[in-house]
Amino acid sequence: MAKILASDLNTIRTKVTDVLGSGSASFGYGQTVYSSPVTSGQVIREDQWDAVRFDILNTYVHQTGNIPSAIDVSIGDTIEDDAAGAYKNYEYFADLLRNNRFDIATGQFDIKQEGDVDAARLAGTTKNTSSTWSNNASAELNVTFNNATEARHFFNAGGAIRIITTLTGGTTQQAGAWTTLLNNQNPVDFEGDIIAATGFYTLTNSYQTYFSRAASTPYSANLYQLKAKSDVANNSAGTATQVDIKIELIDNYVDLGPPNPPIDLVDGTLQIAVNEKLPVGILKPTNTAWAEYPPNSYTMSAITVS
């Protein structure tokens, strides 16, 4: 069995730190990494293996909420490329962390909402209307980050913009259908995961639908949908600093009956609220808090109805 070279450990380290550190495009949580590159031609020290293990631990805990079974290297150990040894073990976790980099475990994020003392950026994002409508209800949200790097890190680490739409107090059958549809779908998150049909990295400067649900029969023509766009024409490299979200309730149901007032009318109080899913955590072994990078501002329009 071959001995492990400095370049071997550095390759593993790079795989992990691309996820935990600054990274680029869809890689990078923007957190401080504990390890440093190993110098070629020198004996790899036990503390250098430990440093990589801590980077693995911090990334794995963020993604799963669990402690990884990465092998703890002891002073004097000879590391070889056998299947049961530290090298293969670390390599396995490095590849796993890259593949699952958008995962975020319960306990590794906070939900922020308007009114939270540490979320002034969300002030004014809850909108209500009690106007009746029969065709369309909509609102638009603008989310702005300080820079593209912070936007990347927010979405890469599992951050999300959460939309919660509700209708309460309605008295018509149509209002009841909308209430049921919305209650069954809340909340809806806009995320960065590249496997999503539409996410942060698929955005252009034209609206794309990232969520769409129809009501049940006989109101299946009614559609609740969310669309998103960015401030750049192609955000595959994560250069956007803004995300715009359009919330639409499209009422295409046609009332066939003569009751007065018509059952096609939607009454009650329609509310659209914005929450923020903010990545958090503690980095070992320093026990320092996870660096936070929430959006700089949220601006929600009034709800318009017709």
Account of the protein in words:
With 306 residues, the protein is an alpha+beta fold. It has two domains: 6-99, no CATH class; 109-305, no CATH class. It contains five helices and 13 strands. The strands form three sheets. Strands 3, 6, 7, 8, 12 and 13 form a six-stranded antiparallel sheet that branches. The model has no long low-confidence stretch (mean pLDDT 90).
Index terms:
single chain; alpha+beta; 2 domains; six-stranded antiparallel beta sheet; 5 helices; 13 strands
Q: What is the helix/strand order? A: HHHEEEHEHEEEEEEEEE
Shape summary: elongated
Mean pLDDT: 90
Briefly note the structural class of the backbone: alpha+beta
Please mark out the parts with pLDDT under 50 across 5 or more consecutive residues, or reply none: none
Distance separating the two termini: 73 Å
The whole-angstrom Rg is 24 Å
Number of E-type strands? 13
Major beta-sheet overview:
6 strands, antiparallel
Count of domains? 2
Query: Per DSSP, what share of the residues sits in E-state strands of 2 or more residues?
Result: 15-25%
Counting DSSP H or I runs of 4 or more residues, the number of helices is: 5
Helix content: 10-25%
